[in-house]
Structure formats: C-alpha cells, structure tokens
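The instructor's notes for this session suggest beginning with a concrete chain rather than abstract definitions. Hand out the sequence below and ask the class to guess, before any prediction is shown, which regions might be ordered.
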Amino acid sequence: MKKFLFETHAHTSETSPCGTVDAKTVVEHYRELGYNGVVITDHLSADNFRRFGKSAPDEKADFFLGGYRAAKKCETEDFKVILGAEIRFTDDPSDFLVYGFNEDFLYEHELDKFRDLEEFRPFADEHSLVVFQAHPFRVNIQVQDPELLDGMEIYNSHPNHNSSNDIALAWAEKYSLRFIAGSDYHGQNCKIPGGIYTDELITDSRNLCNILLSGNYEVKTDKTVK
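After discussion, reveal the predicted structure:
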C-alpha cells in the first residue's frame, strides 16, 4: 500500500451551496481520519455564479476560491490542501472533477462559459488540465465519450446518492480509463470514505495531475482496486 492518503472530492460551505460544513471543519475531519491532504473541489458552474451577472470574472474567482483559501489557512507541513473544481457546463447536467490550475488561472479564464465537455476538451488540453467524470452513473447524468475523458470516478461514497459505483468501475475498465475515488464530502458522514494513496506527498494541483496521469497511485474504495 502506498503511504500518503488524499481526498480528491470535497466541498465547503463557503463556496458550494450544498456544502454543510465550513472549510476549517473539512480539513479537521480529514486530518482526524488520518488523511494527508484534501482536494477542495467546490462547485463551479454558471448557476453557482448567477448572482454575479455576466461581467464579473474577478468577483466570480474571489467567490469560488473562498472555500479553498479558508481551507488553505489550515494547511500544515504534513497535511496539504489542493485546489480543484467540480465543473458543470451550461448545456449538460453532468459533473467533472478538473485538476491542474492555480488561483491566477481562474482570474484569466471563465470556466463556467463552456457548453459541454466536447467544447471544453481542447481548452483542457491546451492548458494541461486533467478531467475525470464525477459519479457518472447517477440518475440524470450523461455518460461521456471516453475519448474526451482522462478518467472516471469509479467510487463515490456520498451516502445520500446511489452512484452505481460497480457500473462505473466496469465502464472504466471496459474503456481503459484511469480510476479515481472520492467521498464527495459535503459534511455528511461516509461509511467508507474514498481517496487515493500515493508514494509522495502531493503539494499542488499540477503535482496531483502528474501523479494521476502516471497511474502511480491506488484508489481507496470499499474494495481493493489498483
């Protein structure tokens, strides 16, 4: 077993409207569970930014980063807080875990403007972003063209949703997609939280991308999957 454990899918109440606990509590929760870090993947969508209108990119970035920045203040040498996002495009109800950007990137690019994954994929490739489909087999979610994905969330442990994880795993195996596992943490107690095990302590989102693309990690699920 690899020695460092990271949560890849967590939300804060500062940014995600469905989050029920603040960023400080998120960090404390995962530290108590023995994790070495958490990726804050708050919701990034036109709906979440509706209050800002159409011409306020800086305000949108400030708002989106609120939860991450609050969590980052709780970071220590042995517990890292990483920036990510759960993106929903304007014309598709599906959700995507996106990694590989920093704070400045959000002030330069409005990620809520893309219509769908097909439009977003060239942009992701241009900027070396990594895209995993989140909980792809929930009701009302559209399974995407595997050619447009870097991987798939094959384990989502949110207790209030049926994510059909067994189907997600079978689909990812069929199309040779990379695996990721996450808790989709909003403040609820997960029976078996998800995450990834790595050989090195992840320090930032680009470091996370390199590990995901290399395949040098293991996923934490209710089963043993490498």
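Then share the key points. The CA atoms of residues 202 and 208 lie 6 Å apart. The chain has a mean pLDDT of 93.
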